[in-house]
Amino acid sequence: MKSGFVSIVGRPNVGKSTLMNTIIGAKIAIVTEKPQTTRTRIQGIHTCDDGQIIFIDTPGIHKPQHRLGEYMVEVSTRTFDEVDLIYYMTDVTRPFGGGEQFVINHLKDVSVPVFLLVNKIDLVSAAEIEEFVQSFTSQMQFSEVIPLSAKHGTNMDKMLQLTFDSLPEGPLYYPEDDLTDQPASFIAAELIREKALLLTRDEVPHSLAVEIEEFKQQSGGKVYLRAVIYTERDSQKGIIIGKNGQMLKNIGEQSRKDIEKMLDTEVYLDLWVKVKKNWRDSESNLNQFGFRL
Known about the structure:
Elements: E1 2-10, H1 16-24, E2 42-48, E3 51-57, H2 67-78, E4 85-91, H3 98-107, E5 114-119, H4 126-137, E6 144-147, H5 156-166, H6 184-199, E7 209-217, E8 223-231, H7 234-241, H8 246-263, E9 267-275, H9 283-288
Helix pairs in contact: 6-8
């Protein structure tokens, strides 16, 4: 029996959350085209006959512009010392540049194997993949180089087999049926934030936070959920609410459907919007929203 922990790291928006969701076979981490969607570490648990892999989806490594950004980078880089293997995920459609060099500089001194995962190979030619890989392998040595498509599942079986080959013998850390260590309230908050990200304009997403104030099961199995979407400015609050409250209604309807699918029961979602000025640079607000190292 093999088991161990694998950190999925890389620049923002390269497909890390999509990869983990595809492996686990469930929506554990939210996915949007907005960079820096993932803000904290999220564990997905893959159990099969070969053993158990605990995948850690991490925020994209970037040059931070505020305390939240600093927290996100710290969360990602701290996993380097806590895992048995690192997936360094890249996007073959985005050329090697300063952002990738920034990540590699953080990886060069790690003591565990590093797999280079080259994502979105379905969008380019074999020659382009080879040239892309060379720009990375000239910078550091990787234990494995695996071209794949996180969206379509291409080469996933090969990646998982090589991963198990690299892991130590060990126990099952979680029960066989567990898919994540995150509570339902956390995933519900993330699903609400995902819908707000997808439905609002570019100036809003990075300043959004969602807090679950109440999560309780009522008679008949129905779940009552009260959640607050926080923004940093009154103008952003207006965008989230929308004309005649239509945007907030859309966010609520779409997120409620996903939450009901997750919980397999009817949900009453009571959704509010509030303003917390500059919360991304406030240590107390970051702690309130669960951003703790």
